[in-house]
Design goal:
By secondary structure, the chain is mainly alpha-helical. It contains 25 helices and seven strands.
Length: about 650
């Protein structure tokens, strides 16, 4: 037997007995590790006939320990090693220095490095790699969003721990780590689509598993993951953590920060790839295809998604932080919060409207509208905005109104454009181009490594950065317009100016001044009427005969099957500014205010009824002041 063995060191055939139970190569002298000589005891041989002896068995042949076959490699090894690479880089260098002497390192440095590249990939490798990469990528996206919220926007650090707890519970609820998840996903895809099988025409993906219709299982699993854990759930979980932490962050803030690129969402796949590395052979999907969002949740459905997530996790969500959000809104409106907030907080504690809780109903008004409606009612009560025509009166210089109401309405009307939400990328052209480069077209590279295209892009970018473009020059467009206006005024001088100067008299001056002021007032009212018509409101002139200086309620009327909104200038100016701050339609804002007003009127009516309620006559013999006729008891009769 030893003559037919092959040496694994030199390849020679033939081993010699070493008289010590082992065999050695006749050329290089290497010991054979796969065979050992054994022997039987003579007494045991004599007992063979009795059934108690032992015979030579191949079981006692010591086989060479084969390398463990890695049929089911843990998918976590590659990701944990890649995720911990940045944090453990310094420790790894120190360990290599400590374990290295004159002869070299004493311990293995590549233990558990991930998938074995030499062996073919199996079915389990594909779905395990895709699943763990997608889940870890979304988790990193949530971590980046929480980090940006804390560092950039001053949100409390509590949101990081809350978001982690919410994410883990959400992953467990999704069921993507169930044992039969991959098989059930393939089976559902085969049931949904029926027809002839597709041939694997692309040689690159020929070895990948497919369903009976020829569809790539990799893409089927990715679609299933996106349905179970959509990419926009990262924003929803981040907002839900802020809501539970009683932060003043609103859905408008989350969406605005995401669109500006300050909250990692559209370009988060770049940072994700830096942490978890390039896709492996078991996950032949690029990071931009896996983590680039193809849709964005609308502002109307954002709170609905958040409430649905909280309900599915079994959370009892609190209302929004009314005080913090109201103070922020008043600062945006340039209104004194120290004067308005005490009354608004009393109304909030009195009403506790259900609009301040997140709801799964898509037709429900957003919580921010409920907060602003309480502020509108409070401002109307404090500043007596009840259709008295204070804004129209302030337009006439002959009647200078120094009241706080006139000043408030004038400021809201003048700063209407300032309170509009502004995005950082809309400052100038250079900022917008940088935003497009970092967010919109992040990760986009020239096709087929076209170096000429790259040179053209770099030259154009240098052209804009050096401000050679006249559009980027500070005030270039405005200066050009001003010069054109001056040229126009020089070409067409006012010829009637000299005639007016010669015929000026005090009476004519007063008349022209009065006429110009009336024209100015009419133009301002005309502009407001046009704006009201755009939002389907009808202008109501000021009230002339005010019998009761009480709270004036604006009602809608049904005119030819459509609701007609009627409002005066004072109320509309306040309503329009508040609607712009919360980014809602003016009519929706008016409906929310009307609901608060009706609820307040109902509560006041019930309180008035309870205060004037008379107690009914007592029928009890012991509690009544009237003595019973048939009573024989002295105590009862004396009572």
């Amino acid at each position: 037997m030893a003559e037919v063995l092959t040496c694994y060191v030199c390849g020679n055939v033939g081993f010699d007995d070493g008289s010590n139970g082992f065999f050695y190569c006749m050329r290089c002298g290497s010991q054979a590790e796969d065979i050992v000589e054994t022997g039987d005891d003579q007494e045991a041989v004599d007992l063979i006939g009795t059934g108690h002896g032992s015979v030579y068995s191949s079981y006692f042949l010591r086989q060479k320990p084969a390398a463990p076959q890695n049929n089911m490699v843990s998918p976590l090894s590659q990701f944990w090693s890649s995720l911990a690479h940045d944090n453990a880089a310094a420790k790894k260098d120190q360990a290599c220095v400590a374990d290295t002497d004159v002869t070299g390192p004493t311990g293995p440095s590549d233990f558990g490095s991930g998938l074995d590249e030499s062996r073919p990939l199996c079915y389990d490798d594909y779905y395990s790699e895709i699943r763990i990469r997608y889940v870890m990528g979304i988790q990193l996206m949530i971590q980046l969003q929480c980090q940006a919220s804390v560092e950039t926007f001053g949100v409390t650090e509590l949101v990081c721990g809350l978001a982690a707890s919410l994410w883990f519970r959400y992953v467990v609820m999704s069921g993507v780590f169930d044992d039969n998840w991959a098989d059930e996903t393939i089976r559902e895809s085969e049931i949904q689509k029926s027809g002839e099988a597709q041939n694997a025409s692309n040689v690159r993906y020929k070895e990948e598993p497919r369903n009976i219709h020829g569809q790539r299982a990799v893409l089927i699993w990715l679609k299933s993951l996106r349905r179970s854990i959509p990419i926009h759930c990262s924003l929803v979980i981040s907002f839900l953590a802020c809501h539970i932490a009683r932060s003043r962050v609103l859905p408008t803030d989350i969406i605005k920060w995401s669109l500006e690129g300050n909250l990692p969402y559209f370009s988060a796949f770049i940072e994700i790839e830096k942490v978890i590395g390039q896709p492996s052979k078991a996950c032949p999907i690029s990071s931009i295809s896996m983590f680039r969002p193809s849709e964005f949740p609308s502002l109307q459905n954002f709170e609905t998604l958040t409430a649905s997530l909280g309900q599915s996790l079994g959370l009892d969500l609190p209302p929004v932080n009314f005080h913090a959000i109201s103070t922020c809104y008043l600062n945006q409106l340039f209104l004194p919060s120290e004067k308005i907030m005490p009354y608004a907080c009393k109304m909030y504690e009195w009403l506790m409207p259900p609009e301040l809780w997140l709801s799964t109903n898509e037709s429900r008004l957003p919580t921010r509208v409920g907060v602003m409606s309480i502020l509108v009612v409070s401002i109307r009560i404090l500043y007596n905005i009840n259709g008295l025509g204070i804004w129209e009166s302030s337009l006439s210089t002959g009647r200078k109104l120094e009241s706080e109401t006139a000043e408030l309405l004038s400021n809201l009307e003048a700063r209407y454009d300032e309170i509009a939400p502004k995005y950082e990328y809309s400052k100038d052209l250079a900022t917008y181009l940088q935003f497009c480069k970092d967010v919109v077209f992040a990760g986009v590279k020239p096709s087929l490594e076209n170096h000429e295209e790259e040179k053209i892009i770099e030259s154009l970018w240098d052209y804009y950065e050096k401000e050679d473009c006249p559009l980027l020059a500070e005030g270039g467009i405005q200066q050009k317009r001003s010069r054109s206006n001056e040229r126009f005024s020089n070409n067409f001088p006012d010829r009637n100016k000299k005639i007016r100067d010669n015929n000026e008299t005090p009476r004519t001056l007063n008349y022209e001044h009065r006429k110009s002021e009336e024209t100015k007032k009419e133009k301002a009212i005309g502009r407001l009427k046009l704006d009201m018509e755009e939002h389907m409101f009808y202008y109501m002139p000021p009230r002339k005969r005010v019998t009761k200086p009480d709270y004036f309620v604006y009602e809608r009327k049904l005119d030819e099957g459509a609701l007609t909104y009627i409002a005066d200038a004072d109320y509309y100016i306040l309503l329009r500014a508040c609607a712009r701050v919360v980014q809602i339609d003016v009519r929706v804002m008016h409906d929310a205010v009307s609901r608060i007003e009706r609820r307040l009127a109902w509560i006041e009516k019930r309180i008035n009824y309870c205060l004037h309620l008379k107690h009914p006559a007592m029928s009890c013999d012991f509690c009544s002041n009237v003595a019973p006729v048939h009573g024989t008891d002295d105590s009862c009769s004396s009572h």
